[in-house]
Amino acid sequence: MLIEVRWHGRGGQGIVTVSRLLAQAALLDGKYVQAFPEFGPERRGAPVTGYTRISDKPIFVHSQIYNPNIVVVVDPTLIGRVNVAAGLAPKGFIVANSERRPEELEGILGVKDAKVYVVNAMKIALDVLGRPIYNTAMLGALLKAAPLTTMDSLIKVISERFPGAVGEKNIAVIKRAYEEAVGVE
Amino acid sequence: MLIEVRWHGRGGQGIVTVSRLLAQAALLDGKYVQAFPEFGPERRGAPVTGYTRISDKPIFVHSQIYNPNIVVVVDPTLIGRVNVAAGLAPKGFIVANSERRPEELEGILGVKDAKVYVVNAMKIALDVLGRPIYNTAMLGALLKAAPLTTMDSLIKVISERFPGAVGEKNIAVIKRAYEEAVGVE
Amino acid sequence: MVRLQDLPTEELFTSGHRLCAGCGAGTIMRMTMKALRGPTVVVNATGCVEVASTIYPYTSWKVSWVHIAFENTAAVASGIEAAYKVLRRKGLWNKDVDVIAIAGDGGTFDIGIQALSGALERGHDFLYICYDNEAYMNTGIQRSGATPHGAATTTSPAGRKIPGKPEFKKDLIGICVAHGIEYAATASPAYWNDYITKVRKALEVNGPAVIHVLAPCPVGMRFDPSKSIEFARLAVQTRYWPVYEVERGKYKLNIKVPQPKPLLEFLKMQGRFTHLFQPEAQRELGELQRWVDENWRRITALCGETT
Amino acid sequence: MVRLQDLPTEELFTSGHRLCAGCGAGTIMRMTMKALRGPTVVVNATGCVEVASTIYPYTSWKVSWVHIAFENTAAVASGIEAAYKVLRRKGLWNKDVDVIAIAGDGGTFDIGIQALSGALERGHDFLYICYDNEAYMNTGIQRSGATPHGAATTTSPAGRKIPGKPEFKKDLIGICVAHGIEYAATASPAYWNDYITKVRKALEVNGPAVIHVLAPCPVGMRFDPSKSIEFARLAVQTRYWPVYEVERGKYKLNIKVPQPKPLLEFLKMQGRFTHLFQPEAQRELGELQRWVDENWRRITALCGETT
Amino acid sequence: MSEKKPGWKSLPIGGYLLESGSAMKYKTGDWRAFKPIIDQKKCINCLLCWIYCPDSAIIRLEKYVDVNYDYCKGCGICANECPVKCITMVEEER
Amino acid sequence: MSEKKPGWKSLPIGGYLLESGSAMKYKTGDWRAFKPIIDQKKCINCLLCWIYCPDSAIIRLEKYVDVNYDYCKGCGICANECPVKCITMVEEER
Amino acid sequence: MGRVMGLTGNEAIAYAVKQCNVDVVAAYPITPQTIMVEVISEYVYNGEMDAEFVCVESEHSALSACIGASLTGARVFTATASQGLALMHEMLYIASGLRCPIVMGVANRALSAPLNIHGDHSDMMGSRDCGWIQIYAENSQEAYDWVIQAFKIAEDHRVLLPVSVNIDGFILSHSMERVEVLEDWEVSKFLPPRKPLITIDPTKPITVGALCLPDYYFEMKFQQIQALKESFKVISEVNAEYETLAERKYGFLETYAMDDAEAAIICLGSTAGTAKAVAADLRSKGKKVGVIKPWVYRPFPEEELVKALGDVKALAVLDKACSFGAPFNALCSDVITTLYRYGKDLNVFNCLHGLGGRDITPSDLKIIFDEALEVAKTGKKGYVKYIGVRE
Amino acid sequence: MGRVMGLTGNEAIAYAVKQCNVDVVAAYPITPQTIMVEVISEYVYNGEMDAEFVCVESEHSALSACIGASLTGARVFTATASQGLALMHEMLYIASGLRCPIVMGVANRALSAPLNIHGDHSDMMGSRDCGWIQIYAENSQEAYDWVIQAFKIAEDHRVLLPVSVNIDGFILSHSMERVEVLEDWEVSKFLPPRKPLITIDPTKPITVGALCLPDYYFEMKFQQIQALKESFKVISEVNAEYETLAERKYGFLETYAMDDAEAAIICLGSTAGTAKAVAADLRSKGKKVGVIKPWVYRPFPEEELVKALGDVKALAVLDKACSFGAPFNALCSDVITTLYRYGKDLNVFNCLHGLGGRDITPSDLKIIFDEALEVAKTGKKGYVKYIGVRE
Ligand SMILES: Cc1ncc(C[n+]2csc(CCOP(=O)(O)OP(=O)(O)O)c2C)c(N)n1
Ligand SMILES: Cc1ncc(C[n+]2csc(CCOP(=O)(O)OP(=O)(O)O)c2C)c(N)n1
Ligand code: SF4
Ligand code: SF4
Ligand code: SF4
Ligand code: SF4
Fold first, then answer.
1. Under a CB-based contact definition with an 8 Å cutoff, are residues B129 and B82 in contact?
2. How far is the CA of C103 from the centre of ligand 1 (A)?
3. With an 8 Å Cβ cutoff, is B167 touching chain D?
4. Cα–Cα distance between C251 and A62 in angstroms, integer?
5. How many domains does chain A divide into?
6. Chain A interface, mutation test: which of E1, E26, E31, most A Cβ atoms within 10 Å?
7. What helix, strand, coil percent values describe chain E, rounded to 5?
8. Do residue H60 and residue D115 have CB atoms under 8 angstroms apart?
9. Which chain C positions have a beta carbon within 8 Å of A41's beta carbon?
10. Does the beta-carbon distance from H87 to C67 stay under 8 Å?
C-alpha cells in the first residue's frame, strides 16, 4: 500500500529533514520511499510543506501529492492560519504539535472523517533539547498514530544522522513524543 | 553573359576595393554584379584574391569562382610566386601590372590559350599619385583588355568613392593605364 | 544630513515581499527607495531581493522594475539609460530618469563583474548598488568572491580537510575605482544616514556610481534575525567593514573607528565562523584577523587617515 | 638582467605564422617563449596571435598550446592548472607545468575580464599576459576598453559628429592589483630585457601574475611596419606607456622618463590619430594629453617617484 | 490551489505585472512566531524601528509608532534597535 | 587546391595538430615586397634585429647575423632597429 | 524601380537599419557580421543616424542592453554571428519571453570547435527553439527588404516578438550585390516610429521579469506560442504592404520552377540561389526540377510548404547545420514532420552541406538534383548524405 | 543486492561522482542543481574525495575550465541547469568539438523569461544539437547508474564525447528515493582511471583549437557524427558490463507493457514513472497501453524505438520543452522522423506538458492514454495538445 504524508511547518524548522528521516527509517524496513519538499522559493519563517511517500512496492509516480493520507503539523502556530487539512484523503490522520486536546483541535480544524492525534512537541523539545526544534518529536507522534515504520528504524536513522549526544537527545524526544501523543478517532 | 574576374594582390593593396569598384561601375551600366573577397583570415602582406562577377541578368549563383574569365594581377611581385593563371577559363585574359612586355610575361606565366595584357601600374601610380597604390590603375588596364564597363562609369564611381583631388588623380591614373596597357593575343 | 522625520512615508518597496524575517537587504531596499529623487527604473539581478519581491502576481515595487537575468544587470541598465537618452534627444520622451542597478555580491563580484566593468568603462549615467550578504543566498549560501576568508558556506563548508573558504574577499570598490568612475562608496545599513546620503549623492553624479553596502543575512551568516542591524553596526565598529567613499579618486573615511571592538565579537555572533574557534582552525582565524587589519590599514591610508 | 647571447636560439614560436609583416605581437610571442623555464602550456584567446599562428594544419607553437574561445582564457587556464595539481597529488603526473594565458586587449579588458577576475580571485598559479594592441585587430580594428581616447577605430571612427573614441582607456593593472595578486606589471617589447625579466619573475610567483604589454600593430594603429619597435619605445619615452611593476601591492617604476619626448610625436606617427590634428578636434587632443599626464602622475605617485 | 487563476487569454503578456506594489495583497503576518508589542507611552518616536524594519511594518504616527501585524514577520529588529527598549517580542498564540 | 588533402578517416580527431611547429612548412617569404640586405662586415652582432624580428627570420651566426628569406616578410624592423645601420631594405624583384 | 546601390549583405542590413530610424543599437563585433556594426557606428559617428550605439563588452551584454532598451519603447537592433549568437543563447529566450520586438542581423557562421569563421547555419539552428521569428535571406536585396519588414512584424501588437534576419556568412555578408533601395521617406511611411504596447515608463511603474512559478509560467509560454501563430497573419499583411511600396513580393517561401516539378531541392539562404541557377540549367535540358526556399523558417510555414510541394515526387532537403545525433538535420526534420501532419507522401532525403563554409558548387547541386530525380523513380528515401566530405 | 541509501537525484549523482574518482569538478550553483555541487564540495572539503573543486564565477567558465582540465587527461565532471546551461551553450559545442569526455549532471529546469526555477526540459532541449551524448533518468537510481556508465562511455576511445545525465528539476533533483549503490571498489574496477588518447602533455607538445578553414572543418564534424554512431556500440557494451556488475539492466530505452500494446506514451525522465504507474492501472482494467522511455536521447535510438513500438497503433509523444514555431516539439519530431525513415505508419500526437514545473498528474496521463486508445481507432494524428494550460 502507498501511504502519502504531508508535513507542515515553517522555513527553517527542518521540514525537509523530517520528511526524509521518516523515509530513511522506512527504507531500513525494506520499503520504497520518496521524500521531497514543496518546490518553491520560500524563505525562513514562511509556511512550507514537505512530503513523504512510503510503499511496499517500487514507487513510480512522480507527481505532487494532493490527497495525503496523513498530515503532520510541526509548527503549532500554523493551526488556524493555514488549511492544514486541505485535500486530506478519506480516513486520513492529522498529527499535530499542540498544547490542546485532540478533540478541541478536531473542532478547530473542522475535520470530520479524520483521526486527530496531538502531542505537545514544544514542551518535549524544550525539556529535552533545550531548544524549540519540534520536527523529530513529530516523528514519535506520527509513529504512535500510524505504524509507518518502527521505533528501531527511527532510532537507527537518528543516530546515524546525528551522531553523539544530539542524536541521543533526539531519540529521547521521539520516545517521549510516542508516549505522550494522544488521539481521538 | 556572365563574366568572372579574379584579382590578385596582397593584403593591404585594396584588392577588395578594386573588385568592388569594377562592380559598381558595371552597376551604373545596368548590369548585375557580385564582388567578394577571398574568404580567409589573411593579413597585410600575404597574397590575397578578390572576385567580381558581372552579368546582364540577375546572378543567382553564390558559389566560389574556380574558372575566372579574367585574372588581374595587381601586385607585380606575385608573378612567378603565385600561380595566377590557375583555373583560367578557355580564352581567358590575364591583365598584369608589370614592367615586362606581354610576350615576355606570357612565357613566364606559361599560358597558351590566354590573352595577356600588361601595364606598368607602378610607374603610373608613382607618377600620378606619388604612392605605390596600384589597384585603380589596373581598372584602366582591364577596361582596355575587355569592355566590362565604360570609362564614364568608372570615372563616376571613382569620383563618388574618392571625392576631390584624390578622385581626380585616380581618374588620371585609370585613363593613363587605359592608354598604356598593351596586350598580345 | 538626513532626518528620519523628513523621509517620505510612502513605501516604494512595499510590505508583502518574501524576504526572510530580519533580512537586511529588505531594510536596504526600503532605505534606497527613500533616497530617490524622481522617476526611477530599478534593474535587479536574480537573487534574494529579486526572487522574494516579485513572485507573480505580486510585486513589492512601486517604481518601474526590471529583472532580466543574473549576470547582466549593468548591461541592462546600460541599454535603458541609452534608450532614454536617445528618446529624449528625439523628443519622444521628456523626463530625467534615474536608473539604479541592484545586485547581490554574486551578481556583482562574480558572474556580473564583466557587465559592470563594461558599463563603467562606457560611462553610462546610472547608479549601481551591490548589496553584499557575502554569499549566494538565494540558492542556499554558496561562496562568492565576496565571502570572507574562513567563512563556511555550502560550497566552502567547514570541512575536515579545508575549514571554510580558503580565498580572501575581493575588493570591489578598488576594482571600480580603477575604472576611474566619479563616485564609489561603501556603506552599512546600520548607518542609515550615511547610506541614504550616499545614494542621493551617487544619483547626482553624471555617469556611473557604485555603492557597496553590507547586507546582513541572518540565514546565511547564521545569527538571530533580530540582530541584523546590530551585525551591520558591529561590522563597522570592529573595522571589518570600513565605511568610506571615493570621489574622483579621492578616498574619504566616513566613519572613524578610533576604538575598535574586538573582531572576535563580530565573528562569534555568526554561525558561519563557529568552526574557526576550534583549535585546528587557529591559522585561519589569524589570517582573517590579519586580513581585516591590513584592509583597514590600506583603506585608511588611502583616506589619508592615521590610525 | 638578460643577455641576448644567453637566450636560447630555439624558437618555440616558429616562423611560418601569418601575423602581418611587422606585427609587434609576433615579437612579443618570441620573447615570451625565450623566457620559459620548463614544460609549459599556453592558453591563447581568439585574436590575431591565435588565428595567425595556428591555421590548420600548421602551427607555430612548439609548446603545448590550447585555444578554446575568445572570452575564457583565464578560465581554461584555471582548469588546466587545477588538473595538473590534482594529477600530481594522485601521482598520475610528475612535472611542474607552467600555465601561461595569452590574450589580446579585447580578450582581456572586455569580454574576458570576468574569467580573469574569477581566476585571480581563486588564486590559480598561472601567468596571464595581455598583449595590448589597443583594439580588436583580428576582426578589423574595432574599439576595445583599451583603445585610447580619441583614437579612430572601425567602431569609433573619426566621424563628423564624434571624432574617435569618446571614452578613456581602462586601467587593467589597477584592476588586477585590486584583486590582491602578488605580481603585476606593464612592459614594452622595445625594452626586451625588462620584458623577459618580468616574464621570468612572473613565472616564479606562486599564484596568479599578470603582465600587460604594449603590442605595436602597424595595421590597426596605422604606422609603417618597420616602426613597430620604434613605436613601442616612443610610447614609453613620451610617458604614454609607463613601465612599472607591482609586487605584493608595491609599485615600482622600471623605466624612468625624466625628459619625456613630446606626446605629439608619438601620436603623429599613427594614422589612428590623424583626425585629432584637425582644428575641430583640439579638445579631444587636449583631453588625451591630459589623460596621459594624469596617468603618469598617478602611476609615478604610486611608485613613490617625484617627477 | 482552490481559487481559479486567470488563463493565458486574460493575463498580460510577458509576465508583466501592471499593478505596482501588489505584494501588499500578500500578507506575511502569518510568518510570525514572535510578535512585537510597543509600549507607546515609552516610545520617543525616534523612528529607528521604522527605518530599520525590513517589512515596512512599523507605522509612523504623530507621537509614537505602531505595528502593522498584517506584514510584520516578527524578526525582532525593532525591539533590538529601540533605544528606549519600548518594544517587546512575545510569542504568538498557538 | 590541387593537392588532395587528407580525409576524415586519417585526420587526428578534434582538429588536434600533433606536429608542433609545423608552420615552418608554410613559407611566408613571398609576402615580402622589400628585402633586408645585411652588410655583414658592418654587423656588430648585437642581436637586436634577432630579438625584434617578429618572424624569427634573423639567423644568429658566430660573428654576424643572416636572414632567412624563406620567412622574412620584409617588415623592415631589423633595418630600423639596427644600431649600426648595416641592414638595408631593397625592393624585391618583380 | 528604386535607387540602385552596390551593397554587401552586411551593408544592406546596416543601410536598412539606418532608414528604419532605429533608436538603440547594442552590438559586439564578430566575423563575418562585423561590418554591419562598423557601418552603423560610422552612421552614428557621422551624425547620419540619430541613435545610441552601445559598444558593449560582449554579446551577452549586447542582447541584454537591447532588452533593456526595448522595454523603454525604443526601436532596437543588434547583430551577431556564431560564437556571439551562442553566447547570447540565454538572452535569446529572455528577449522573446519578455516580448521585446528587437531585430537582429545574423551573418551565419559555423560554431567552434574547431574554430571556423566561415558560413554555415549552426549558430542560428543551434538556437532555433528560442521563440524568435527567423528569416533567411538569399541575397543582399532580400536582407535589406526583410530588415525593414522585420521591424514592422516584430512591433505589431499581435506579435511582439524578436526577429532575426539571417544572411550567409561571407557568401552574403561580404559579397557586394545590386540592391534596390527605398527612399528614406518611403521607409518612414511604411514604418512609423514604434508604438509600444507597454513600457517601463517610470511614471506609470510596472514590474517586468517577475518569478513565475508553475501556476503561471505555462500560460506565458502559451501566449508566445499563440503570438507565433498570429504572426503568420501579420507577416502576410506586412509582405503585402511592402509589395505595394517596393514592388518586390515576399511571402513565407519562394518557389522556383515548381509548377510541374518531379523533384525539388528545399534549402535556406544563398544556396537556394545557386540551386535556382542549376535548376534553370536542368530545366533547359528538360529535367523537371524546382526549388523551394523558405524565407520564414520560424514559425515554420507548413501549410505554404505543402502547397508549394504540389505533386513533386522527391525532395532533397539541404541542411547547412548538423543536428548531432538526431535522425535528420533541422530543416529536414521540419519538412518530414510537416509531411506527416498533412499526410503527404513524398520521398525525402537529407543533404548536409556547407559546414564551416565548404563551398557548394553548381555541380554539387546538379548531382543532388539528379539523385532527387532518381529517387522520384526508385522511392528510396529517409537517408542523409554528406556533400563533399573527404574520406 | 547493493547497499541501500536514501538519496535525492542530486545526491545520487554526487555520490556516483565521488565513486568515479573524478579529478576535477568545475561548476557553478544554480537551482535545482545546486545540491549536486554542494555535496561534492563537502566531499572535497572533508577530504573524502581527492579532487580539485574549481568554484568558478560563472557557468561559462565552469565548462571552460572543464575543457581545459579534460585536455590534460583528467577525469572531469560539471553540473548545471537552466540559465546555467544556456550560458554554457557556446562551450557545449566546443567540448564536443574538442572531443572532451566530460560528464555533466543537469537538473533540468525551465528557461527564462519569465524566470522559473522548476523542472522542464527546455534547457537541454534548447541545446540538443550540441554533439553531446544525452541521457535522461527516471529516478535517483537511474541517475546514479548512468553517471558511472557515462564516464566509461565518454572516455572510450571510439567515442570521446561529453555526456550529459539529465534529471528532472525538483521532481528528481530534490526527491529522496531508495538507491542501491555499488561499493567503491566495484566502481573502481568497472571504471579504472581514465586512459586519455591524446593530451596536452607539455613534454610532447601539441596544438589544440587551431583555426580550421573550409578545407578541413567538415571532416572534423564528420568525425563527430561517426563517433556518435560508434557510441551505439559502446553504450551497449557498457550497459552489458554494468548489468553483470550491478544487476540492473540498461539500454537505449525502456519499454513497459509494450508487448501487445495498442496505444502508448513515449516520454523522457520522471514523467515516464508516473506514466508507468497509470499504465499498470489501466492494464489492470484491460486497456492495452504501454510506455516507452528513452534513456539515451542523443544519439537518438531509432532502431530500438522502431523495435519497441511493435504493433502499437497510436503513440502519444510527451514533450516537456517547447520548440517554438516548429511543427512539433523536439522528441515528437525525432519520433516522427524515425517513423519516416523506417517507413512505419503510426498515429502520433504530441502533448506538451510540464512547462515551468506544471505538475503532470496520473489523471492527466490517464486522459492521454484514453486519447491514444481513441486515436488508435480513429487514426487522427499529427496534432499538438497542451496539457493543463488555463484558457
Ligand atoms: C546564469 C545563472 N547562473 C546561476 C543562476 C542561479 N542563481 C540565481 S541567484 C544566485 C545567487 C545570487 O547570489 P547573490 O548575487 O549574492 O544575491 P543573493 O541571493 O545573495 O541576494 C544564483 C547562483 C542564475 N540565475 N543564472
Ligand atoms: C564570443 C565571441 N565574440 C566575438 C568573437 C570575435 N572575435 C574574435 S577575435 C576578436 C577580437 C580580438 O581582439 P583582441 O583580444 O584585442 O586581440 P587582437 O585581435 O587585437 O590580437 C573578436 C571580436 C569571438 N570569437 N567570440
Ligand atoms: S537568505 Fe539572507 S539575504 Fe536572502 S532573504 Fe533570507 S535573510 Fe535576506
Ligand atoms: S592586425 Fe596588428 S596585431 Fe594583428 S597580426 Fe596584424 S599587425 Fe599584428
Ligand atoms: S519585528 Fe521585524 S518585521 Fe516586525 S515590525 Fe519589528 S522590525 Fe518590522
Ligand atoms: S624585415 Fe622583418 S621579418 Fe624580415 S628579417 Fe627583418 S625584422 Fe625579420
1. no
2. 9
3. no
4. 58
5. 1
6. E31
7. 20, 20, 60
8. yes
9. 18, 51-52, 55, 138
10. no
Q: What's the gap in Å between the CA of H165 and the closest CA on chain D? A: 21
Q: Which ligand is nearest to the CA of D142?
A: 2
Residue ID of nearest Cα to ligand 1 atom 5: H30
Choose one of D153, D217, D272 to mutate for the ligand 4 pocket test, by most ligand atoms within 8 angstroms of C-beta.
D217
Nearest CA to ligand 3 atom 3: C217
Sign of the four-CA dihedral D86, D91, D95, D96: positive
* pLDDT the model gives residue E1: 43
Among B48, B77, B81, pick the best mutation site for testing chain F contact (most F Cβ within 10 A): B77
Q: Which residue has the cell 517507413?
A: H343
Of G103, G76, G108, whose CA–CA distance to G173 is shortest? G108
**What is the pTM for the complete model shown?**
0.98
Residue nearest to atom 8 of ligand 6 (CA): F53
Q: Whose CA is nearest to atom 4 of ligand 3?
A: C48
Q: Taking the CB of residue H293, how many other CB atoms lie within 10 A of it?
A: 24
pLDDT tens-digit map of D216-261 = 999 999 999 999 999 999 999 999 999 999 999 999 999 999 999 9
CATH architecture entry for F32-91: 2-Layer Sandwich (3.30)
Beta strand extents in chain E (DSSP E only): 34-38, 58-60, 65-67, 87-91
C-alpha to C-alpha distance for G66 and G78, rounded to whole angstroms: 7
On chain A, the residues whose CB falls within 8 A of the CB of E30 are 47, 77-78, 81-82
- The minimal CB distance from G176 to the residues B36, B41, B63 is found for B36
Q: Please choose, from the candidates G149, G129, G145, the residue with its C-alpha nearest in 3D space to the C-alpha of residue G137.
A: G145
What CA–CA distances, in Å, run from G208 to C18, C58, G222, H255, H320?
18, 11, 18, 44, 25
Q: Give the right CATH number for H3-246 from 3.40.50.970, 3.40.50.620, 3.90.420.10, 1.10.1740.10.
A: 3.40.50.970
Domain boundaries, chain F: 32-91
Search chain F and give the residue with CA nearest B105.
F94
pLDDT of residue A40: 72
Q: Is H390 on the interface with C (CB under 8 A)?
A: no
Question: E47 Cβ partners below 8 Å, 6+ apart?
Answer: C4, C5, E60, E65
Q: Which domains does chain D have, with CATH numbers?
A: 4-302 (3.40.50.970)
- Cβ contacts of A65 on chain H, cutoff 8 Å: none
User: In the predicted model, what is the mean pLDDT of chain A?
Assistant: 93
Report the distance separating Cα D225 and Cα F80, nearest Å: 10
For residues A71 and A74, what is the distance between their CA atoms, to the nearest angstrom?
10
Q: How far does the CA of residue A152 sit from the closest CA of chain E (Å)? A: 32
Give per-residue pLDDT as tens, H130-155.
Answer: 999 999 999 999 999 999 999 999 99
The number of residues making up chain C comes to: 307
CATH number of G253-386: 3.40.50.920
ipTM over cut 0.90: yes
Q: Nearest-5° angle of CA F27, CA F21, CA D193?
A: 95
Specify which residues H208 forms β-bridges with.
D66
**Closest Cβ–Cβ partner in F22, F56, F68 for D30:** F56
Q: Which atom of ligand 1 is nearest to the CA of C144?
A: 16
Give the residues across from G264 on adjacent strands: G290, G315
Q: By the 8 A CB rule, do B48 and B10 touch?
A: yes
Among the partner-chain residues A47, A98, A122, the one whose CB lies closest to the CB of E30 is: A47
Q: Around Cβ G247, how many Cβ atoms within 10 Å?
A: 10
For residue C188, give the amino acid letter. S
Q: Which of D178, D307, D169 is nearest to D239 (CA)?
A: D307
**Domain span holding position B19:** 3-184
Chains within contact range of chain E (3+ C-beta pairs < 8 Å): A, C, G, H
Domain spans of chain G, in order of start: 3-246, 253-386
**DSSP one-letter code for C109:** I
